[in-house]
Amino acid sequence: MKVFAVIPVHNRKNTTLKMLSSLAQISRPQGVDLSVCVIDDGSTDGTFEAIKKAHPEIEVHRSDGNLFWSGAVRLGIDHFLQTDATHLWLLNDDLTLDPHCLSHMVKAATQHSSWVVSATVLDRDDKLLYGGIFKLPFFRFRKATDDDFENGVCHADTVNGNCLLISREALLQFRLPAQGLYRQEALDMYIGLEATRLGKRPMILRNATCNGEANTTKFWFYAATSPVGNRLRALMGPKGLPPKMYWDFCRKFAGPLAPFYFVRPYARVLLTPKSKPRAVS
Q1: Which end of the chain is more exposed for a tag (fewer CB within 10 A), N or C?
Q2: Does the predicted TM-score (pTM) go above 0.85?
Q3: Distance CA 40, CA 68 (A)
Q4: Same structural domain for residues 179 and 250?
């Protein structure tokens, strides 16, 4: 097996270097070749130079800052498909990997012919942060909890993209979106939903772990703390749900009510005016 790791980064030099040090210390399964590709999306803090100095063996591709996370992942997929690697290992740059994380993921992918295998991301107290995601009625989603695991495994409808092992076979059969359509959000959920659509639900492993941080900036545009116009522009911008991207996501995965679900987040912002400051008595 040949594993090609893709790590999107942007302006987190120290965090990225810490993660790469963690990656260098993992236990590599017998018979597995690992190569690493970093997609640096226009960092201005010296990330590119620091990686080249500390890890000259790593392939680093530099962009102009307009890819964002999903765009960097999509570019990484293109680089992967140009190699002879059998599996793409998608990693966030803020992870501390358990030394046996890759070994567990490779074993599961091999024994169960799984297209998409996810590690579980734990917080500082080793509580579950990210892993599987379940699709609910009315095109809503919920994160997997410990109760969803049976014998250390959870089969979910889709995944967070913090630490994913994806087979070449899967990527060749997925309806991959065009480069540039997905910017910050949703490409990880897209990958998981594509696997489920083709009868290969993602496998999430409780014994394959890494530690990371919760994303506390998502979906702030729904909070009535700033003017509606500001929140709507943010929602429709590259770090939110750009309409072209979100329509592609809805039409592929939301079913016949896709137009309704497409409008819903924008209507939610429009119908949530900025709250007035409370009078102080």
Answers
A1: C
A2: yes
A3: 10
A4: no
CA 189 – CA 242 distance, rounded (Å) = 16
Same-domain status, 92 and 228? no
Mean pLDDT rounded to a whole number for the chain: 93
CATH code at position 59: 3.90.550.60
Joined together, the tokens standing for residue 12 give 């987190």
Domain boundary residue, one of 164, 182, 211: 211
Cβ neighbours of residue 161 under 8 Å, at least 6 residues apart?
A: 73, 90, 92, 187, 188, 191
Same domain flag for 144 and 250: no
Whether 202 is covered by a domain: the verdict is yes
